Amino acid sequence: MTPFAVTSADAPPRLQHLDECRAVAISMVVGFHALGYVTVEGAAASIILFFVQTIAVPVFFLVDGFLMMRRVQVNFAYGRFLRQSARRLLVPWVIFSVLYLVARYVFELTGMLETKLIIGHSLGQIAVSVYASHIAPQMYFLLSLFAIRVFSFAIQHLSKIPTVYLAILAATYAAVFRIFEGALAGIFAPGLDPILHALWGFQYYLFGTVLFRVDWFFSGKRIAISGLICVVVLGLLLVVADDHPVAAAIIQYSFMLATYCAAKQWSGKISIIAAMGRDTMGIYLLHAPVILNITAKTVCAALGSGVVSYVVVVFAVVMLSWISAQLIIRARLGFVFGNSKKKRSI
């Protein structure tokens, strides 16, 4: 899937550069969440925020759109795909929502958390907190991606239209969503509403379908040249017009495409990155809030706040989450991550 794609019996082989895109993106996700636990001030905070927030989750939607367009080129069974997606996305959401809810309750009882989301609240309020990812900030994504996949049958029809029309559709959807994003936000539940974020993520999902169509272009020297152009455009717009909504969109898409080009250009050069990219579901589910909270408090107690502590925390949390995920899988409990017993996801 995004960080976590599903498997089908006739699934084509993995694309290593997409695993590497996921590895970069999951590091950004951890980095973004770490800013809530480690104090970084001044210009450094703004720079870090740009690098860890701009494309972290969008990359996961992009990868899923790319892979969806790839799937429908072969024998695609919508019913089977939806069942696999439910196992891959909904089962982990239920399991980890319950686990983090219990952990939150224990921390509130012991006084480790000042803000109360469970104690003193009704069942309805607690349910809203779980749904909107107030308990664990990453959980919304699983429901958002599943919501998109429910409509995956439409991709079969999109796969038949010319690339230029598909690109126009993707650009139009992105523009329309950005225009009405503020109005839409007022309709949904406060916080990280999964449906609102499915609508938000669909623009990047469509971008992934377009990227699949034009992927043939990114080969040989064209990869490096394309990536360099994206970096130059990104840099120029950051200097002259980063606060303009159109410029902000171009910056974001340039950043995503530059990341894709870099992953494809250097694919296989650092094997640990691809390996981490294959296990992003576990890292994603485990990194926050417990591991991140404990790690941040430990590091900050030893080193204080600042950039150095922040970097140490991000690296430590990624590694601890990855190792923990591997231990869980080796204990034959991989079902908590939605893993199939037969083979790993594409």
Q: Topology of this protein?
A:
Layout: H1 16-34, H2 43-53, H3 56-71, H4 78-109, H5 123-131, H6 140-150, H7 153-158, H8 163-185, H9 194-214, H10 221-240, H11 245-265, H12 271-277, H13 280-303, H14 307-330
Helix pairs in contact: 1-2, 1-3, 1-11, 1-12, 1-13, 1-14, 3-9, 4-6, 6-9, 8-9, 10-11, 13-14
Structural class: mainly alpha
What is the overall silhouette? Answer: globular
Helix content: over 70%
What string, H for helix and E for strand, traces the elements in order?
Answer: HHHHHHHHHHHHHH
Mean pLDDT: 92
* Tally of separate helices: 14
Describe this structure in words.
The protein contains 14 helices and no strands. Helix content is 71%, strand content 0%. The protein is mainly alpha-helical and 346 residues long. The N terminus is likely disordered. It has one domain.
Structural key phrases:
346 residues; mainly alpha; disordered N terminus
Summarize the structure.
This protein is mainly α.
